[in-house]
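Researcher: I'd like a candidate sequence for this fold, 465 residues long. If you have to choose between options at a position, lean toward the conservative one.
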């Protein structure tokens, strides 16, 4: 019984291995000869099942449809092309009226179950219903593939980011003993073909396509796979125009607001209006910024730091206003450490100079004012006849008026002294406020320049890659 079964199997194999029949007057193999092949479509087309079927794979990246940073999904559109050898679909062109290629329905033939391992969604693209078959038995299957794949997207350098996504092609069920995969074209040629179609494809630009064949092992079984690395980079001009340039303008206005005199102009109201405008700008542009649970792009950090710097500049204005107005109204002397640290070291550090020299203490100015004081005459001294050269009657009448005049002059002197002291204190605190304003302005300008330098360097690095 076993011998009879073996004979039937060898007979079937010998029938299939032979070339397809072609009748006279017919172009190509006959339907009857191909029907035998169609009936065996469930079986891998190999005479010796120990020999694996080799599937050659190539694709052309036609478009990048979308990049979802939050869900880490890349949506692309590929033109996929598969080649494999069908040992039972071979005929002689000389006997078939010179026909070397025919097309057959793909559902009538065995096809390798090649899938993309990164697939995360159903394929909704239209399948091609036919395959081309060469007279040597080689089959070419072209299809359009809308690939929704998972990709580890790095958005830290957005909008100057470069993404490296992998497409892993391999058989789903057949192990390395049944199906082997290999690239149908050199990777440089696939990369060049894809670049020609992606030149006008919106936001993304193809850098290069690389690949490598490897073996995937699960337990004791091994699968032959080929991995393609698709490197794409973003065209940042849209985000530079819509995000960076408006933000730079607002930051420039905030920098120029330091040139407003803090003692005569309400700088705080201007800065609060500027912060409100920057907040509205961030709310409007929030949809353009990618968001993931893994990290935050550096441009988001840049906007947050810019907003924080605006708030700091507003706080600086509040402090300077308090120094210039609040402290001087309370007749507070400038502390010694403030004079040493701010008016001494910091003023020399930022090259702050006074036109009339550094402010001095009110006591020093009082001493340098000279002996311009009026001492009132006591009634006893004025009534002394020995010290008076006037007529006694007239002197006695003049003493009360002189005493009143002395009192009035004394009150006026006190008032002028208080005004002078207030002016001196206000001058001292004004110098302290200006020194702090100059210092904080330079620190603020250095921070803004540093962040602008980082962004420009990242743009240059992206441009050169």
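Model: Candidate sequence:
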């Amino acid at each position: 019984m076993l011998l009879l079964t073996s004979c039937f199997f060898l007979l079937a194999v010998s029938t299939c291995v032979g070339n397809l029949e072609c009748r006279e007057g017919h172009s190509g193999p006959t339907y009857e000869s191909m029907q035998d092949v169609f009936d065996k479509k469930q079986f891998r087309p190999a005479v010796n099942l120990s020999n694996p079927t080799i599937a050659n794979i190539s694709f052309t990246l036609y478009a990048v449809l979308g990049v979802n940073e939050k869900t880490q999904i890349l949506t692309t559109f590929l033109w996929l092309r598969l080649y494999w050898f069908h040992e039972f679909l071979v005929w002689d062109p000389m006997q078939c009226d010179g026909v070397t290629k025919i097309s057959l329905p793909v559902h009538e033939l065995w096809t390798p179950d090649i899938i993309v391992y990164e697939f995360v969604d159903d394929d909704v693209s239209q399948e091609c219903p036919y395959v081309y078959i060469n007279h040597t038995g080689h089959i070419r299957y072209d299809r359009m593939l809308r690939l929704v794949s998972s990709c580890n997207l790095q958005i830290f350098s957005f909008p100057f980011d470069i993404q490296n996504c992998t497409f892993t092609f391999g058989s789903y069920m057949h192990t390395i003993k049944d199906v082997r995969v290999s690239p149908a074209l050199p990777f440089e040629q696939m990369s060049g073909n894809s670049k020609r179609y992606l030149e006008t494809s919106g936001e993304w630009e193809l850098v290069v396509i690389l690949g490598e064949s490897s073996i995937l092992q699960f337990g004791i079984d091994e699968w032959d796979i080929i991995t393609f690395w698709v490197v794409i980079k973003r065209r940042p001009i849209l985000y530079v125009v819509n995000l960076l340039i408006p933000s730079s303008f607002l930051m420039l206005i905030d920098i120029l607001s330091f040139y407003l005199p803090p003692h005569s102009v309400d700088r705080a109201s201007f800065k609060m209006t500027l912060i409100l405008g920057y907040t509205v700008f961030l709310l409007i542009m929030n949809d353009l910024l990618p968001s993931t649970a893994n990290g935050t792009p550096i441009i988001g950090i840049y906007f947050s730091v810019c907003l924080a710097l605006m708030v700091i500049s507003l706080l600086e204005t509040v402090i300077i206003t308090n120094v210039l107005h609040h402290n001087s109204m309370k007749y507070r002397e400038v502390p010694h450490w403030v004079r040493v640290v701010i008016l001494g070291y910091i003023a020399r550090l930022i090259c702050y100079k006074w036109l009339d020299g550094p402010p001095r203490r009110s006591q020093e100015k009082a001493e340098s004012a000279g002996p311009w004081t009026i001492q009132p005459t006591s009634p006893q001294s004025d009534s002394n006849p020995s010290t008076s050269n006037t007529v006694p009657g007239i002197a006695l009448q003049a003493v009360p008026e002189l005493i009143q005049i002395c009192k009035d002059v004394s009150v006026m002197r006190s008032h002028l002294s208080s005004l002078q002291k207030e002016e001196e204190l206000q001058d001292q605190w004004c110098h302290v406020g200006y020194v702090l304003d100059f210092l904080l302005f330079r620190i603020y300008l250095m921070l803004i320049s540093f962040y602008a330098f980082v962004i420009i360097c990242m743009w240059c690095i992206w441009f050169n890659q």
